[in-house]
Amino acid sequence: MKSIAPCNFDTCPVAASPYGYPPSSAAGALFLIIYIGALIACLIYTFNTKKWLEFSIPVSIACLFEIIGYGVRLGSTPDPWNVTLYATSTAFIIVAPAFVSASIYFTIPETVTILGVEHSLVNVKRYPLLIWIDVLGFVLEVVGIVISFSDLSADTGLGPNARIGSPIIASGIALQALSLICFINLFVFVLFQAAVAYSKFGYTTFHPVHGYVPMAHRFKFFVAMLLLSAMCLFGRALYQVIVLGSGLDSWTAKNQALFAGLDSFLVAEAAVGLIVAHPVIFLRDGVEKRLGGSRNPSFVEERASQYSIDDYRPPTRQDVGPGQSPTNFI
């Protein structure tokens, strides 16, 4: 096999490069700018409020990994035959979305509590356990990446080990897809039940101390972005499972249009959407507003304990005094 080390656009076909195409400099620069902006915005939220670190830290790591990945990918534009740049960009772009999904799972307990824990099929404290599925998937991804690139050569590009490692990476991403689809189904069930309660009573839940709990418009926006981001990550995971299941040297892996639309765009939407709807600003309800706008650390636990799914009885119209309606309490 002819060595690709001295290759350039005049001497070798670009299809012989590890990418299979010259990475678009415009796309690389665009996504690099998007993630830099998202990271700066997230850090501003974090340093100004010192709240929701469990959300900000993983999504910031995801943005940082994407910045490295697209920065290196941008550097590959004039030399797509550089196997070191290819391996670095591919590795960081593959593992970054796991941190975005982790940030989603950390917000679910409070999100479901605001909607009403009585609508959930599982205890709200158990949602973050989905992270452990992601952790296992992340470990498999790292192992697969190490194996895939262990015999990478500047002369021949991908070695035989890529055929062994890529299915392992695919299995890790498949696990993350499993955790995402579990979350999406559980969360959609909560939203459906909350919508039914709202259509009947004009509210989704009732707080024993503070009365009827309103849903702020900003909270509705947060819920929409949460669900949309999870669906984008799930779609991206399906794409990568297909790509990596076929192999890093397959046609699907070397199709730049598919990569841009089904990986770059979907992950960017998920990460940026979550940061735009940062829980510091958007994950609030009417009760918190009455309490002065501060996030009480014991608030979630207090409400979850008062809303036991087993003994909850939705309020009826008889619970509302004469001449009053649920909106009188908001």
Description:
With 330 residues, the protein is mainly α. Helices cover 63% and strands 1% of the residues. The chain contains eleven helices and two strands, in the order H-H-H-H-H-H-E-E-H-H-H-H-H. The chain has helices at residues 25-49, 53-75, 83-95, 97-115, 130-148, 161-201, 217-246, 256-276, 279-282, 286-290, 299-306; strands at residues 206-207, 211-212. Strands 1-2 form a two-stranded antiparallel ribbon. A hairpin with a 3-residue loop joins strand 1 (206-207) and strand 2 (211-212). Helix 1 (25-49) runs antiparallel to helix 2 (53-75), helix 4 packs parallel to helix 6 and helix 5 (130-148) runs antiparallel to helix 6 (161-201). 44% of the residues are buried.
What summary fits the major beta sheet? 2 strands, antiparallel
Read across the widest sheet, the strand sequence of neighbours is 1-2
Count of helical stretches: 11
Number of strands: 2
Unreliable runs:
293-315, 319-330
Nearest-angstrom radius of gyration?
A: 23 Å
Helix fraction, binned, reads 55-70%
What gross morphology would you assign? elongated
Mean pLDDT: 85
Structural class: mainly alpha
Strand content: under 5%
Descriptors:
two-stranded antiparallel ribbon, 330 residues, mainly alpha, 2 strands, elongated, disordered C terminus
Brief overview:
With 330 residues, the protein is an all-alpha fold. The chain has eleven helices and two strands.
Layout of secondary structure:
Elements: H1 25-49, H2 53-75, H3 83-95, H4 97-115, H5 130-148, H6 161-201, E1 206-207, E2 211-212, H7 217-246, H8 256-276, H9 279-282, H10 286-290, H11 299-306
Antiparallel strand pairs: 1-2
Helix pairs in contact: 1-2, 1-8, 2-3, 2-4, 4-5, 4-6, 4-7, 5-6, 6-7, 7-8
